[in-house]
Design brief:
By secondary structure, this protein is an alpha/beta fold. The chain has 2 domains: 5-65 and 164-340, 3-Layer(aba) Sandwich (QueA-like), CATH 3.40.1780.10; 69-146, Beta Barrel (Thrombin, subunit H). It has helices spanning 138-145, 160-166, 189-197, 236-242, 254-262, 303-312, 314-326; strands at residues 29-33, 40-44, 56-61, 63-65, 69-74, 79-89, 92-98, 108-112, 115-122, 127-134, 174-177, 201-207, 230-234, 248-252, 273-277, 292-296, 337-340. The chain has a 9-stranded mixed β-sheet. 38% of the residues are buried. It is found in: Cytoplasm.
Length: 341
Amino acid sequence: MLDKLESYQFDLPEDLIAKVPVTPRDHSRLMVIDRSSGKIEEIPFYELPQFLGDGDRIVFNNTKVIPARLIGRKETGGQVELLLLEEKTEGVWLTMARPARKLKKGTKVIVSDRLCAEMIEELDEGMRLVRFDYEGLFWEVLAAHGEMPLPPYLQRDELPKLDRERYQTIYAKHAGAVAAPTAGLHFTKTLLEELTEKGVDIVEITLHVGLGTFRPVTAKTITEHKMHEERYWITQEAASRLNRPAKREICVGTTCCRALESAVNEQGNVFSGEGRTDIFIRPGYQFKKVTSLLTNFHLPGSTLMMLVSAFAGYDLTMNAYKKAVLDKFRFFSYGDAMLIL
């Protein structure tokens, strides 16, 4: 039964999809789930420190979302959208292109007088390898002409300035993600200081959130679904700290969880360095490192729902989601969060 996509579907009223974030960041709602007792309670997110203490370790994904969405025109005048996914070499990017059928090898796209693109290789699933020609520093040109790559359910013309600030964690450092690690959007400087004062060890790793975030599960049997690869990095210092004993290993977000579970051996030891992962965590998976998970409320039928079901247990997860809908929690990227202990 748990291999069927329909097992992870649920009815979600449109008005529960959060279109804008709450202000301040930490005034969202937090559902706290105790796996051992099945108890579910609710607190304001800023009261999170009451559940954490000395000896706990919390792990963040410090990736930084880039303004990866470019709108340009072909030399013949047709509008084109390019979503930058991964830099392959300097000036050459893997992109998702729309309309892909009209973007053949050799086609040129003009974004501005400072930025042009040429299709140099046609790939599957609407992807293209693109070479950019630009004036100045690429990241500055991208900042000037790119838009934040919001998920489809947030697409709107207004509030771009708000999204540049709020669709980014306050601790984002390493540019390269095309989607935010959204569980981290709730944290403020004050909240991080409170956790430190309580003796919570804060560790950062990096996973550049990629195309898989936007890719729906289409197979009726989830075992047939294939995840896209994403790059991650764990510094030697971070690995050393992660390999010290901790009361609890609390991952902030599914991306952080996937990176950590990809970089650990059967004994629970974390390896430093760079890696690529296409790990698909679903019910039946045995977690090797993560003991608690902080995450947002996800799309019905998504791989993220399956990961949460693997961690919290299917029945408890579906009961929690049913309660979230009844209690009108806000869903998805700008929505509320749950802490699974």
